[in-house]
Specification:
heterodimer; A: 362 residues; alpha/beta; Rossmann fold; B: 73 residues; SH3 type barrels; five-stranded antiparallel sheet; 23% helix; globular
């Protein structure tokens, strides 16, 4: 039944696309989880060749700068420090090596890191704070809890990023050819739809907040292609079973209280203004950089790696000379191959669409 | 990284709740959704409920996932 439903939606997309005869249509799936759903479901085979789906910068592992990893590895050498992190970050290459060799404690929830701190009062526990607006409120809430319980040995390395400023960067880049955005479902559960309105108003770029079942993604693509065919641009919510237009006010309140907005470096892309979060002055005692002033040398991207271009939809994974040869999930060179939701990993694992020219992806 | 799972809240103890996630019971924090009640379906990320879902939609999602799991064994 589900397959029939997907085919129905796909046929509607094909019909809508056929109304645009003069040009291919490029949509960007901003979120790495969408990249995985698209690759795993094989939905590209159902879609018309004129529709291109490009991966975006919404993979936290992929956009965390090497400098952050290098700093974290340097920290882990301090005798008194325990690094706690989400599992995704463990194998990301820094300039030399990964965190894996330094026995980080992998946690499911940031609250588990706080528990480790309580159990190890003589050690400093540092949580590697990576993620977007979905994740940062959970660490914000953990910091509030640490303050309330007066846990003195819990710290955060804040490397959080914000999605709307990155989308502004993409929308105003003349070389990036994207006509619509498949917007992240769970980031939007927190921030709602308002922070994306500028895309439609300023850049006439439609966006659709989309859920994570294959049928959700197809619906999102259909909503966007219809808008493009009709020359419209609006921000719509396909994933309305989870996302409310106003977002989650409690989570936004915690973000506002615990963090301040700051400029932030995106791996492979560069500095984007107002696209990161740092601890606010009220909570600055949890900022590990105030406690451990370790300088790490400037880092360069691995030679030949084009993750930066892949993250902006400027290149496809198979355009990279390293892809599938020097760079594989077992021995990754760049972050887009490390993260299970990186677009290089998704292409490697689920097939080489581009080599056959499928989906116009050449 | 922004993965979420759907759970139904069974018990609430202050800011902590027990949720049933596809048949498995787990402790979660409801500090980001203080209005959550017993039997609410919530979207869970990194051990925190991040939003309360429409109950009918959530049940349908759960049934769909169970259906898919049945065939992917």
């Amino acid at each position: 039944m589900l397959k029939a439903l997907m085919e129905t939606v796909a046929s509607k997309i094909i019909k809508a696309i056929s109304e645009i005869t003069d040009r291919p249509v490029s949509l960007m799936e901003v979120c790495g989880t969408h990249t995985m759903v698209i690759a795993k479901s094989g939905m590209r085979a159902m879609l018309p060749g004129k529709l291109r789906l490009l991966s975006g910068p919404g993979c936290p592992v992929c956009v965390t700068p090497q400098e952050t990893i290098d700093y974290c590895i340097a920290l882990s050498r301090e005798a008194n420090v325990i690094i706690a992190t989400f599992g995704d970050m463990v194998r990301v290459p820094g300039t030399r090596g990964t965190l894996e060799a330094h026995a980080p404690r992998v946690v499911y929830s940031p609250l588990d890191a706080l528990t480790i701190a309580k159990e190890n009062p003589g050690r400093d526990v540092v949580f590697l704070g990576v993620g977007f607006e979905t994740t940062s409120p959970t660490i914000g809430a953990t910091i509030v809890e640490a303050a309330r319980k007066n846990v003195r040995n819990f710290y955060v390395l804040s490397a959080f990023k914000l999605i709307p400023p990155a989308l502004d960067y993409i929308a105003r880049s003349p070389q990036i050819d994207v006509q619509g955005l498949i917007l992240p479902g769970h980031v939007s559960a927190i921030i709602g739809s308002k922070p994306y309105e500028f895309l439609a108003e300023k850049y006439h770029m439609p966006g659709c907040i989309t859920g994570f079942e294959p049928i959700d993604v197809l619906q999102g693509i259909l909503i966007l292609t219809r808008q493009i065919v009709d020359g419209k641009s609006a921000i719509t919510i396909e994933y309305d079973r989870v996302v409310k237009p106003e977002g989650n006010s409690q989570a936004l309140g915690i973000l506002n209280m615990v963090f301040d907005v700051c400029e932030s470096r995106w791996r492979g892309i560069g500095m984007i203004p107002d696209s990161g979060l740092k601890l606010s002055s009220k909570y600055s005692r949890f900022d590990v950089r105030n406690e451990y002033d370790i300088k790490v040398p400037e880092s360069a991207e691995p030679k030949g790696c084009i993750c930066g271009r892949v993250l902006l939809g400027l290149s496809m994974p198979f355009d990279c000379a390293l892809f599938g040869k020097r760079c594989t999930p077992v021995d990754p060179v760049g972050p887009c191959m490390v993260s299970s939701e990186g677009s290089c990993a998704a292409y490697f694992r689920y097939g080489d669409y581009g080599k056959t020219g499928q989906n116009g992806a050449t | 990284m922004c993965l979420g799972v759907v759970g139904r809240i069974d018990e609430i103890h202050g800011e902590t709740a027990t949720a049933e996630i596809l048949g498995v019971r787990r402790q979660i924090s409801i500090v980001l959704v203080p209005e959550a009640k017993i039997n609410d379906y919530v979207m869970i990320h990194a051990g925190f409920a991040i939003n309360i879902m429409d109950a009918r939609d959530a049940r349908e999602t759960e049934e769909l996932i169970s259906e898919v799991l049945k065939y992917s064994r």
